[in-house]
């Protein structure tokens, strides 16, 4: 493992993504990627009393599913990296408290899943752990309740708003295996362009995605055409178009092989999700379901996954603060 350029880690013995798992809610199960998820829920509560408890159950069962699919005994998983959007990351800590695996809670907003992948890869490469687990979750109802308005108010959502994905994604990253491999990781910087509209997260996060994208290319000497697909985490339709335009002004044409998890997970024409999906589970479930499947089937052989996050909370929004963005990237190759 070595640092190259300004912000990128090159893994000299690239760790393998052994297996993944994903569980999603009812709206996500009606979208175009439904067949790629391990389980699709019929309701938002999943038998629990609160949305928060439901989210904890979702991440718990997603983690149990990936452990079962991997065939690795729980005792042989050295560390768990997980996070979510709720205050103090309670979905992860409550959901995984019975797991009995050394736990490191993460918060990178909606970039948490790739942040976990980076940390797990570093631990695997440095011999700190042979098998590391990373996971992230979100829930539309719990997120709306915390960040915006209680659902009971029935507030009208503007066209720029996104729909927080109900679900979770999990992956086991190992020191040994036959791939897909995580070959590089570019850790993002906090980028704040002064956007204050909490219903336009795509615009707030796109500059951070641009910064990480360009940094990755400069650090590695690669260009957009190196990858079969460049995928951002949850910029949605509006943020996606902003990133395409911003990249073009910097001399990078990404239009032909770029897409966004928030665009992929919902059908814009038939589902009322406005600008698309968002949340930790947006990147987590789309990668763990759809994208990992494409890699295993070798329909995609090289992808750059850039998870995006808005580093804000309800208090800062009410105080009129701007919304800082963050984006972390991993290069995944067969």
Q: Can you give a write-up of this model?
A:
It is a single chain. By secondary structure, the chain is of the alpha/beta class. The chain folds into two domains: 15-174, Stage V sporulation protein AD (Peroxisomal Thiolase, Chain A, domain 1, 3-Layer(aba) Sandwich); 181-333, Peroxisomal Thiolase, Chain A, domain 1 (3-Layer(aba) Sandwich). Helix content is 34%, strand content 23%. It contains ten helices and 15 strands. Strand 11, helix 7 and strand 12 (258-260) form a beta-alpha-beta unit. The longest helix is centred in the N-terminal third of the chain and has 20 residues, at 51-70. The two termini are 19 Å apart. The mean pLDDT is 94.
By CATH, the superfamily of the largest domain comes out as Stage V sporulation protein AD
Radius of gyration: 18 Å
Which second-level CATH architecture of the largest domain applies?
Answer: 3-Layer(aba) Sandwich
Biggest beta sheet attributes = 7 strands, mixed
Shape: globular
Q: Could you give the count of β-strands?
A: 15
**Secondary-structure element string:** EEEHEHEHEHEHEEEHEHEHEHEHE
């Amino acid at each position: 493992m070595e640092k190259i350029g300004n912000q990128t880690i090159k893994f000299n013995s690239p760790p393998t993504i052994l297996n993944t798992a994903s569980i999603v809610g009812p709206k996500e199960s009606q979208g175009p990627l439904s067949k790629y998820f391990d389980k699709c829920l019929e309701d938002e509560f999943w038998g629990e009393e609160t949305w928060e408890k439901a989210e904890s159950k979702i991440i718990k069962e997603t983690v149990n599913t990936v452990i079962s699919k991997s065939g690795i005994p729980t005792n042989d998983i050295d560390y768990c990296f997980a996070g979510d959007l709720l205050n103090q990351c309670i979905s992860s800590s409550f959901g995984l408290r019975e797991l009995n695996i050394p736990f490191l809670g993460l918060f990178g907003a909606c970039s948490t899943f790739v942040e976990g992948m980076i940390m797990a890869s570093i631990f695997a490469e440095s011999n700190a752990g042979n098998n590391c687990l990373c996971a992230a979750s979100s829930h539309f109802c719990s997120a709306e309740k915390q960040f915006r308005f209680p659902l009971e108010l029935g507030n009208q959502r503007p066209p720029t708003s996104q729909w927080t994905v109900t679900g979770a994604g999990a992956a086991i990253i190992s020191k040994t295996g036959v791939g897909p491999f995580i070959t590089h990781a570019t850790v993002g910087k906090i980028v704040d362009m002064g956007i204050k509209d909490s219903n336009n997260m795509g615009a707030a996060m796109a500059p951070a995605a641009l910064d990480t994208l360009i940094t990755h290319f400069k650090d590695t000497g690669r260009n957009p055409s190196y990858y079969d697909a460049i995928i951002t985490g949850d910029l949605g339709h509006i943020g996606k178009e902003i990133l395409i335009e911003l990249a073009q002004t910097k001399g990078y044409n990404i239009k032909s092989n770029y897409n966004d998890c928030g665009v992929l997970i919902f059908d814009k024409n038939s589902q009322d999700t406005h600008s698309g999906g968002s949340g930790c589970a947006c990147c987590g479930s789309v990668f763990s379901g759809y994208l990992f499947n494409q890699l295993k089937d070798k329909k995609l052989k090289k992808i750059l996954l850039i998870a995006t996050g808005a580093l804000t909370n309800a208090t800062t929004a009410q105080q009129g603060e701007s919304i800082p963005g963050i984006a972390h990237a991993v290069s995944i190759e067969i």
